Amino acid sequence: MNATSPTQALLLATILFTIGMLGVLARRNLLLMLMSIEIMLNAAALAFIAAGARWHAAQGQVMFLMILSLAAAEAAVGLAIILRLHAAGRPTLDADTGNRLKG
Amino acid sequence: MSDLPFILFSLVAAWAAIMVVTRDIAVHALLYLVVVLLSLAGVFFALGAPFAAMLEIIIYAGAVMVLFVFVVMMLNLGQTDRDRERHWMAPGVWIGPTLLSGLLLIALCLTLRAMPPTTGSDTLAPIGPQTVGILLYGPYVLSVELASFLLLAGLVSAFHIGRDTRATGVNSGTATGDV
Amino acid sequence: MDALLLPLIVACPLLAAGLLFMSAGRMPPLPTCVIGAGSVGLSALMAAMLATGFLRTPPPAGALHATLWSWMQVEGFNTRIAFTLDPLSLVMMLVVTGVGFLIQLYAYGYMHDDPGIARFFGCMTLFVAAMLVLVFSSDLLSLYIGWEGVGICSYLLIGFWHTDTANVAAARKAFIVTRIGDAALLCGLLLLATRAGTLDIPALLHIAATRPADLSAETAAFLLLGGAVAKSAQVPLQTWLPDAMAGPTPVSALIHAATMVTAGVYLIARLHPLFASVPAAMTAVTIIGLVTLLLAAGSALVQTDIKRILAYSTMSQIGYMFLALGAGAWQAAIFHLVTHAFFKALLFMAAGAIILRVHHRQDIYQMGGLARAMPGVFVAFLAGAAALAGLPLLTAGFYSKEMILQGAWHAAPLLWAGALLGAFATAIYIFRCLFIVFFGTRHTEPHGRTGATMAMPLACLAVLALTGGWMEMPDAIAPVHLLSHLLSPLFGAPMPEGPTWLLWAGSLVPLAGVGVAWLLWRPRIQTRAPPEDALARLARAGWDFDTLYDVLIIHPFVTLGRLNQTDICDRLSNATAATARAGGRMLGRMQSGQVRRYAGWIAAGTVVALCLGARP
């Protein structure tokens, strides 16, 4: 595993991030958007880990932990909102209908 | 080729991620997401971060995904939802986001290429949980506190949002369509 | 004691004005008049006391000073509110308070049944106070306060009967035209203040006398002259005075004949070393005086309104004073100022008495034959007319005009000839007016009587108009030189007198004028219609200066204003506002409220930022 390059890991992070963003942009279902955001968060976490490996520092994993807790909180709140929307009469979870902030 | 696991895991992760964003059934997407997380855990392991890999599996693929599963179960999705997803994912919808994402990918790759090349010679020795733990409770104890606060806030807001107003009588009349 | 009296003379009418304005018209006419006329009378009394004290024991420096307070004190500039009583301001003070008191008394008889009498007396007393400030000031800045004060009082009183739009228009015209001069005066003051570093009159005059005149001194002299020209209704800013007759007659007598319009003369006399050091300004003063004197006399010859005749006559007589100033005959100018105040106030008040008796008609061709109906007024008017015409030996006007003619002769014989021509015309137009009004067939039956409060001032002024000139006589008649001696510390020795035939010419020309007037308008062959040829019409309209200014200034200005009706200059700011609004609307369209759209913008922004960051 000594030949594993952090640059390659960063490339993977980039690809994952882009795929996640594609999901956020293309999907209309809030649940699927939330999943795409999870992918993006993981891509960011991967970037930290790769950077930590590059400089052989444990700080990358510390930041990974931060992202982990962030993702957990985000998932909790986001899923609560989804449940609430569903209960309040929007079973389709269409992100495009929630546009009351229209300027 | 000692980085074969890394490449394998990487390919699996990328493929599974693509599957996640293109599924029309939420449970399928969720399962692919678990695959993504598991393969990412493998990648972490290959990068010499076993602690992070374990946490990824336990917390992410375990706890967080269970949350998602519960929610999917509660949404009680069926055939109509699947048809609607199909309808929403007409090919025309994908053009713009793909273009934008492709652009971002190209830009990021160009940035990566511009980075100074790594030496590549030094080995990626694993960084164990001990080192991370000492660091967490040493100089980064404040960030641990912040993380705990963040989780607490998430907990409280999840409780608040998810509260059943019809049961308590608050906003009983206007609860529908008000969120 | 004397220095204390000086501010009191000003404070007395000022207080009365405040009291009258604050009474808001709730005071009955009699107390109003008592306060108004009484305060000016009190000032006149104090002025007389001060004058006797001054003449008996002249103060050591030749002038009394009373510094009230320091107005502003900054680096390199220092202004005090200070009053000075020197021979010149002594003479002016006596004229303003004395004639002012008589006119106030007369005004009660004239105005006592007017509902706005409190306002009238308030303005009149305020005017007297402002005029006294103007006269007493030893600093040009406080003089300017008085200058503007008399201007605003003039405006208020011309438009006193403000329900008639013509009166308001006349008031506005007077205000605006004099404002042009006031602006010039202010510019002159600022120039003097920046160049000389002070506006203290003695200091300024010291500088003017010791330092050769440079460009700034010349410019300042001309700017001050502009102010004087507008205030004294001289060509080319004379157009407001005939229209100012829209005010009540006592106002015309006090402000537009006796005092305010002579402020320009006073200003030039006060600053005479400054003007004397700029020959071009002196020439300008002379020419302005001569031109005004002849043009106004020509206009007065064909007027039909009795007050307008007197207004043009006033312009003409002030033209004499300017002529004297330009010729360097300072004493003559001040002497004529004094006698003119007497006889012109008398003429206006007599005219007012006539107007009251003939149902407020002012057209002389509608009067006629009034000598028998109102003999007292006739005698008063005759005295005033004789003084104005300068009938020899008996009248005050003769001596003062003679002195001006002498001064003009010394400056240039051509000026003398012009002034003599003016004297000839003066005699013709005032006796034309007299013959038409008082002789011939009667066209309007007079009613009522001229009250005692009106008759008394008329009598006083008639006596003054006849005898007031005896304080200064040519040597050929009697060696009396009271005024010249009084003023000599200020103006230096008077000019030597010319040959005696000048005196003869000056005596005979007015008589000839009266003779011509008798031939043309004597009762039997009196023509009952004013001349109607083109020249007469032109002269009656004041040589059409109004039309000229309309074409040259007002029409272009109005056209410009009409062009700018849509606010061209506002277009720029309006366009800015419209652009901002359109931009805001466009940006607002971006706020679609859709999360995915926002995410797309964020992604696009990220791409752009990365491209920008990766460029080098």
Number of helices of chain B: 8
Series of secondary-structure elements of chain B, N-terminal to C-terminal: HHHHHHHH
Give the rounded overall mean pLDDT of chain C. 88
- Assembly classification: heterotrimer
What's the overall geometry of chain B? Answer: globular
| CATH C-level label of the largest domain in chain B | Mainly Alpha
Q: Please name the CATH architecture of the largest domain in chain B.
A: Up-down Bundle
State the largest interface.
A-B, 77 and 93 residues
The computed structural class of chain B is: mainly alpha
Instruction: Report Rg of chain B.
Output: 22 Å
β content of chain C, as a range?
under 5%
User: CATH topology of the largest domain in chain B, what is it called?
Assistant: Four Helix Bundle (Hemerythrin (Met), subunit A)
The span between the termini of chain C is 91 Å
Instruction: Note the beta-strand portion of chain B.
Output: under 5%
Proportion in helices of chain C? over 70%
What is the CATH H-level superfamily of the largest domain in chain B? NADH-ubiquinone/plastoquinone oxidoreductase chain 6, subunit NuoJ
Commentary on this structure:
- Chain A: It is an enzyme of class 7 (translocase).
- Chain A: One of its GO terms (molecular function) is quinone binding.
- Chain A: It is found in: Cell membrane; Membrane.
- Chain A: Its EC number is 7.1.1.-.
- Chain A: It is a multi-pass membrane protein.
- The complex is a heterotrimer of chains A (103), B (179) and C (616).
- Chain A is mainly alpha-helical.
- Chain A has 3 helices and no strands.
- Chain A has a single domain, classed as Helix Hairpins (Orthogonal Bundle).
- The longest helix of chain A has 29 residues, at 59-87.
- Chain A starts with 5 loop residues before the first helix and ends in a 16-residue tail after the last helix.
- Helices cover 75% and strands 0% of the residues of chain B.
- Chain B starts with a helix and ends in an 11-residue tail after the last helix.
- Residues 170-179 of chain B have low confidence and may be disordered.
- Chain B contains 8 helices and no strands.
- Chain B has helices at residues 4-22, 26-46, 50-75, 79-88, 91-114, 129-136, 141-162, 165-168.
- In chain B, helix 1 packs antiparallel against helix 2 (26-46).
- With 179 residues, chain B is mainly α.
- Chain C contains 25 helices and 2 strands.
- Among the domains of chain C are: 281-533, no CATH class; 541-574, no CATH class.
- With 616 residues, chain C is mainly alpha-helical.
- Chain C has helices spanning 2-22, 29-56, 87-111, 117-136, 140-158, 165-196, 201-210, 215-231, 240-243, 249-258, 263-270, 272-276, 279-302, 306-327, 330-357, 375-389, 396-411, 413-438, 452-467, 482-491, 500-521, 534-540, 545-563, 570-590, 595-614, and strands at 64-74, 77-85.
- The model of chain C has no long low-confidence stretch (mean pLDDT 88).
- In chain C, a hairpin with a 2-residue loop joins strand 1 (64-74) and strand 2 (77-85).
- At the A-B interface, helix 1, helix 2 and helix 3 of A face helix 1, helix 2, helix 3, helix 4 and helix 5 of B.
